[in-house]
Amino acid sequence: MNANVVPFQPAVEAYGARSLTAADVRAQVNLMQDVMAEVMKDGTHYGTIPGTKSKSLYKAGAEKLMATFRLAAKPEVEDLSAHGEIAYRVTVNLLSANGNFIGAGIGECSSAEDKYSWRAAVCDEEFDETPENRRRVKFSKYQGKVEKKKQVRTNPADVANTILKMAKKRAQVDAVITATAASDIFTQDIEDLPDEVVAEIVGKTPARAQVVTSNQPPPVVESPERDALYASLQDIAEGGLEAYAQAWGKLNKEQRAMIGQAAHEGLKAKAERASAEVVK
After folding, report:
1. Half-sphere exposure of 52 (CA within 13 A, CB side)
2. Measured distance CA(185)–CA(180) in Å, rounded
3. Largest distance between two CA atoms of the chain
4. Is the Cα torsion angle 271, 272, 278, 280 positive or negative in sign?
5. 249: helix, strand or coil
6. Partner of 103 for a Cys bridge, out of 72, 179, 189, 191, CB 3.0 to 4.6 A?
């Protein structure tokens, strides 16, 4: 066994311009590990899959790796919409700084997916007045207790942009993992799966369905409900800080978590600016 210490090698200047040597590969792995340790945050850029040692790469983490290796995304969108449902397939091509093709990833999303096809009923009256074929009661289990949630069907057109963004996100994460040969470090998309499916994969109750013991806030998940709530808060924020503070105070814990602390701070700043303009 060769015990000589191999000096750290700088990253390839023109990624994809030539074949990588063993030293280049070591440098690439070192660089990703350095970025993970110094820049990325667990729960924001990646997350650990419950019950395993694997990490799931999030969109924010994929963007950090793209910036690290100076990669640009060039998406191609295929509209698969049919029978009243919105669906897209996106292929993300990754290009180097000098325009060379490095790799590609593919992702799909559809409004027929459970998380996009149903939303919580605003009130009992809305649920009762919705046609029977467009409403349901969903049973779920949380902390050992069975819960019933009244849901109504989502209008596919309302989530079209969310569907497109999610398909692109899935393709981009796939492309980054493939192009940087990071599949031994990251997996993908399991954070998009329902808790019941995750439980089957890992053979235990997922962390999202257990009592949260970490101080790390949960990652913000895109959904039609969040989009609608965020848009409403944006409109309210334009009315000033007092109006926004009242609206935020009326939200329950689940709704606040849905929006996320970072988005809340941005909306609060917007409301403060609106109040300052009124004073002027």
Report:
1. 16
2. 10
3. 75
4. negative
5. helix
6. 179
- Alpha carbon distance 232, 247 (integer Å): 10
Q: Cα(first)–Cα(last) distance of the chain, in Å?
A: 74
Helical ranges in 75-206 per DSSP H? 114-117, 124-129, 160-179, 195-202
For residue 156 the two structure tokens come to: 């596919």
* Cα–Cα distance for residue pair 191/147, rounded to 1 Å: 22
The amino acid at residue 50 is: P
Q: pTM score > 0.70 for this model? A: no
**Would you tell me the crossing angle of helices 241-250 and 261-279 to the nearest 10 degrees?**
150
CA atoms of 42 and 36, how far apart (whole Å): 9
Of 221, 219, 108, 220, residue with least CA distance to 174: 108
pLDDT of residue 210: 45
pLDDT for the residue numbered 76:
97
**Which pair of structure tokens corresponds to residue 129?**
């007045």
Closest CA to 88 of 111, 67, 109, 70: 109
Q: Which token pair is 126?
A: 């809305």
